[in-house]
Amino acid sequence: MSFTRRHVLTTITAAALLGTSVMAQAADTVRIGLPTKTYWPTTIAETAVKQKLFEKEGITAELTIYRGGAETFEAMAAGAADVILDATSLAAAGRKKGVMSKVVANAAMGYYGWQLMVLAKSTAGVKDLNAKKVAITSAGSGSDLLALWTIQDKKIDFTRVPVGGGGLVPNLLAGNVDAAVVYSPLSFQISKSGEAKTILDYSKEVPPNLAAGWIVLDKYAQEKPQLVQKTLNALYGALMFMRDNKDVTVKLISELYEIPVEIAALEYDATIMHLETDGSMSGPKIPDEVQLALDMAKAGGMKDLAPAAEVISTQFKPVPTKP
Fold this sequence. Notes:
The protein has 323 residues and is an alpha/beta fold. Helices cover 41% and strands 18% of the residues. Helix 7 (142-154) links the parallel strand 7 (133-136) and strand 8.
């Protein structure tokens, strides 16, 4: 399967199959924005599609892949996406610019599989990247956040080069950049192939924080709360299915991203099994975990962020849909 910048992966036509009107179908359609290809949010959404979980909730889902977290957030702000997976810091930054959105479900408490990588033949360490070029997906994205965190934490400076999610590995392997912030399973794939190596493992280096969540505009949550709830139910139902069905999930990851089964298995163990299964934003530790994410963003150079309390919504609690 090939991917384009705004490639709609699939549309579930459950409403049409039930014979409902076009108007009713449109009213029950949710547009899900995903920050890049070959990434765990896409795996979750695709699993929900294949297991007909959106259909079981009585809704239609359109999945769109963007070039990075910042572009995904911009799509939601522009009204082109309804529910997105993105960094919590973007919601905080957006509120200060008039984009009123909140994190409605916790997705990940860390940067699982994210690694700072150089060519296998390179002798460079993290400190050697001072004044060099490092590839990220886009400005304001999760990869950019990690790059900024690296600059601050390691007390170095380098040029962040936005190349899109699909450009990280090609630009690194071509030598157009000196290093790249790479997400899994791509990080596992080029490490296993011997083409690149890790010089910083963000899943180990970055303190646990509410790094990513499902986000919606305040207005959308107010006007279509049932649609948001049903969408979250299907997404967390997909995650539970994935956890309970390793072989099926590994096969899907392998086929979706055209990677070897052994790499897909690494992605399953190192990433999928560490994602948040509850999703609730009502836990007593949630505000602190969000604040840690915002503090990390500030340490990396992001400014003018709304406080954690303003980007948390306790309106929803996912009830996983069963296949």
